Amino acid sequence: MGSTTTPEEWPPDGQFPFDLFISKKYKSFWDVGNIQFTDSVGNLLFRVDRGQPRDSLARNTQSQKLILDASDNILIRLVRLVKGSWQGFMVGDTEEKELLFSVNRTLNTFTKLEFDIFLGDKNGEGAEADLKMTGSALKRSCTIYKGNSIVAETSLMYTLGFRKYFIPRNRFRVTIFPGFAELSLVVALVVIFFDKRKFWV
After folding, report:
1. Gap between the Cα atoms of 32 and 35, Å rounded
2. Which residues are bridge partners to 102 per DSSP?
3. Class of the 18-193 domain?
4. 184, containing H or E segment
5. How many Cβ atoms sit within 10 Å of the Cβ of residue 9?
6. Please, which pLDDT band fits residue 5 given cuts at 50, 70 and 90?
7. Does residue 103 contact residue 80 with C-beta atoms inside 8 Å?
8. Using one digit for the tens of pLDDT, what is the confidence trace for 113-144?
């Protein structure tokens, strides 16, 4: 298990793996639900909202999502440009500031998905990806790599020795490993990986 933190101790010590627990919160039976990321004792750290288009770029896209902190401050705006291609923008003081990263899907089969992630304003053409993300949506698994090192990976809760309890199959744990402190980026990439999966959204 990763280290436990509270909002006052944020961010966690980068010397140890840190776990985020992912689930959905529903306000009513008909509610589509909001994805939430909490720490090991249930403190809300991040949540995902469906943003409304605020400019001509957003209005021409198929989808966008907002990554917010526990105080509802918008951290990242995710914009899907075309199927499998996303951009993430830093947001502060209600205004979009800069392009943080671009994501291009490179493989899409029934059993495997792969993505290249380019940090900053790289367009991906002829550039080497800074991060790679691979896994199987069918198996609810996702691993993010930086070179040969694992940055983060998801695990289904019901496979981690919790079988005597009822845990929904869309309840995830994502572990962020030492050496990578950009937790909001990991949150954004996990959301992109599982976008439009019926067990997730």
Report:
1. 10
2. 87, 118
3. mainly beta
4. helix 183-193
5. 12
6. very low
7. no
8. 999 999 998 766 678 999 999 999 877 889 99
Peptide bond into 178 cis (omega under 30): no
Q: In this structure, are residues 143 and 153 in contact, taking their beta carbons and an 8 Å threshold?
A: yes
- Alpha-carbon distance of 136 to 112, in angstroms, equals 5
Amino acid at 67: I
CA dihedral 36, 37, 43, 46 (to 10 degrees): -80
Phi-psi region of 21 (alpha: psi -120 to 50; beta: other; left: phi over 0): beta
Query: Left if phi > 0, otherwise alpha if psi is -120 to 50, otherwise beta: which for 180?
Result: beta
Phi, psi of 81 (to 5 degrees): -80, -55
- 59-81 CB burial, b ≥16 within 10 A, e <16: eebebbbbbbbeeeebbbbbbbb
Q: Which tens digits make up the pLDDT trace of 165-196?
A: 444 555 678 999 988 878 899 999 999 998 87
Tokens, residue 173: 């744990």
Query: How many CB atoms lie under 10 A from the CB of residue 185?
Result: 23
Structure tokens at 73: 């401050």
CA distance 114 to 84: 10
Residue in the block written with tokens 């990986």: 193
Contact 19, 40 (CB under 8 A): yes
